[in-house]
Amino acid sequence: MTETRSGPVRVVLASSLAQPDAAVARWITAGRSSLAFILGDEDCRHRLLAHAINWDRVLLAYRADTAVGYASFKHQRRGPFSPGIQPFLREFGRLGGALRYGLFLISECREWYYGFYLYGLHVRKGARRQGVASALLQGATDQALSVGHTKIELEVQVKNTPAQAFYARHGFRSMHTFPTNGLSRVLPFPAVINLRRTLSPLP
């Protein structure tokens, strides 16, 4: 339990909950807007990913009984989503579905380079600037240390200066900037900055 400016926030691993929340699942799948050119609009992303969420790669922040934020992460080459090809074929047809599924896998495999990767962090508008994001980041830090990692890495778009400032306040340092492995030359992947925070190992 973390005390924030508007009351206590409880951060839990989603897989520890008895029943995944359908509304939360929709919120999480909506977070892949940067891949809209592959995964389609919000409704389409929900159809493709909602039944393929790895809840053990998702942290949820609750204030009372309301989910106010989430963080997702990847390690051991497994992130918050593991969809098969069939939803893509149903959504886009045989050729288009196979192509989009292949592009999605490329975008996922690109992040295997990182040991513990913060895949996404989102806070509801009404709960922002109240310490929720910091509580989720602390939860992600605890997860990383619990599985033996001593650094957390993430990527943030070059144009997203508020996010860069937030992570800088929490000890993240810029490592390098790159147009996502050259993919941006042929696909609309935005240029991103790799940020890293080194952690003190558990005693």
Q: How much of the polypeptide forms β-strand, as a percent range?
A: 25-35%
- Helix percent band: 25-40%
* Weakly predicted, low-confidence segments: none
**What is the level 1 CATH name?**
Alpha Beta
Compressed to H and E, one letter per element, the order equals EEHHHEEHHEHEHEE
How does the major sheet shape up?
Answer: 5 strands, antiparallel
Structural class: alpha+beta
Strand order of the largest sheet: 1-2-3-4-5
Looking at CATH, which topology would you report? Answer: Aminopeptidase
CATH architecture annotation name:
3-Layer(aba) Sandwich
Strand count: 8
The gross shape turns out to be globular
Number of helices: 7
Mean pLDDT: 88
Q: Compute the number of structural domains.
A: 1
* Terminal CA distance: 22 Å
Integer-rounded radius of gyration: 17 Å
Superfamily (CATH H level) name: Gcn5-related N-acetyltransferase (GNAT)
Entry summary:
This protein has 203 residues and is α+β, with helices and mostly antiparallel strands. The chain contains seven helices and eight strands.
List the helices and strands and how they pair.
Elements: E1 2-4, E2 7-13, H1 22-30, H2 36-39, H3 42-49, E3 58-63, E4 66-75, H4 86-92, H5 94-109, E5 116-123, H6 132-146, E6 151-157, H7 161-169, E7 173-179, E8 191-198
Antiparallel strand pairs: 1-2, 2-3, 3-4, 4-5, 6-8, 7-8
Helix pairs in contact: 1-3, 4-5
Keyword list:
alpha+beta, Aminopeptidase, 5-stranded antiparallel beta sheet, 3-stranded antiparallel beta sheet, 7 helices, 28% strand, globular
Can you walk me through this structure?
There is one protein chain. This protein is an alpha+beta fold and 203 residues long. The protein has one domain (2-198): Aminopeptidase (3-Layer(aba) Sandwich), CATH 3.40.630. It contains 7 helices and 8 strands, in the order ββαααββααβαβαββ. It has a 5-stranded antiparallel β-sheet with strand order 1-2-3-4-5, with helices on one face. Strands 6-8-7 form a 3-stranded antiparallel β-sheet. The protein is globular. The model has no long low-confidence stretch (mean pLDDT 88).
